[in-house]
Amino acid sequence: MKTNPYVKLAKKALEFYIKNNKEMQKPTDLPKEMLEKKAGVFVSLKKWGDLRGCIGTTSPTTNSIADEIIQNAISAGTRDPRFPPVSEKELSLLTISVDVLKAPEPIESISELDTNKYGVIVRKGRRSGLLLPNLEGIDTPKEQVDIALRKAGIYPEEDYKLERFEVIRHK
User: Fold this and answer.
1) What are the φ/ψ torsions at residue 110 (nearest 5 degrees)?
2) What is the CATH classification number for the domain harbouring 71?
3) What are phi and psi of 76, to 5 degrees?
4) What is the pTM of this model?
5) How far apart are CA 66 and CA 134, in angstroms?
6) I need a labelling partner for 146 at 20 to 30 A (CA). Which of 103, 118, 127, 128 fits?
7) Phi and psi of 33, rounded to 5°?
8) Which residues contact 28 (CB under 8 A, 6 or more apart)?
């Protein structure tokens, strides 16, 4: 099976960083979109089906999708505060997915969400929480928003803003 170029780049970036303790050079033989377009990107790592790391950006912080993937793959494997850094022995056990985010749009109510189609962002002042769409075990928009609120440290009774976004998921 041919590896998706987004996933392949995330895997190479994380492996290179763990083995060499430095960031790899961005390959030049990537699809044009990865080199020329900018977007927020989330890189998720799973080991034996369980989350092992997930870090991302809601909007672009680098010059290209490829740069965003490299940064976030390294962060997902080494800087996710919920997990210890990935070890070299674990690399072969990881499955990686890359979500390229489309621009978020404000919504008025939870009724405008669909957990399979949209991710959600909750915001209150400088606090924000995000949950990607189509996650196993999250079946209702209420569950999705509740988790995003917890991640942000926002109480459900506070006055917060909602945004939704779509992703292109690469596995």
Assistant:
1) -60, -25
2) 3.30.700.20
3) -60, -35
4) 0.93
5) 23
6) 103
7) -60, -40
8) 35
